[in-house]
């Protein structure tokens, strides 16, 4: 009802992304906290890179699925999460999550924005 939305277009397809709700925001941080930390040991290894990519795709697809659920409330969010991971290219996931974060006011502030004004 009050959530902002924006149409996301990629490769000739489009979906409507929504700002996440207050409850979804809390659930998002719970979801992030539930993920196993990836150690910096062996950060040059291919295994470490693979773990980071998997975590990035998983977390971003989770957030996009919650955003899309406002457009299609009859869809199961967890199934939508899996579908996004299996069918969306990583570039589309990265672009879509940026929109969701912006709509939801969750973009990290840059150093200039975070500095208090005198």
From TrEMBL:
Q: Name one Pfam family in it.
A: Phage_TAC_2
Please state every residue range assigned to the domain named Tail assembly protein G: 1-114
**Alphabetized InterPro entries for the sequence:** Tail_assembly_G (IPR010027)
Name of the protein in question:
Phage minor tail protein G
In its UniProt entry, the species of origin is given as: Hafnia alvei
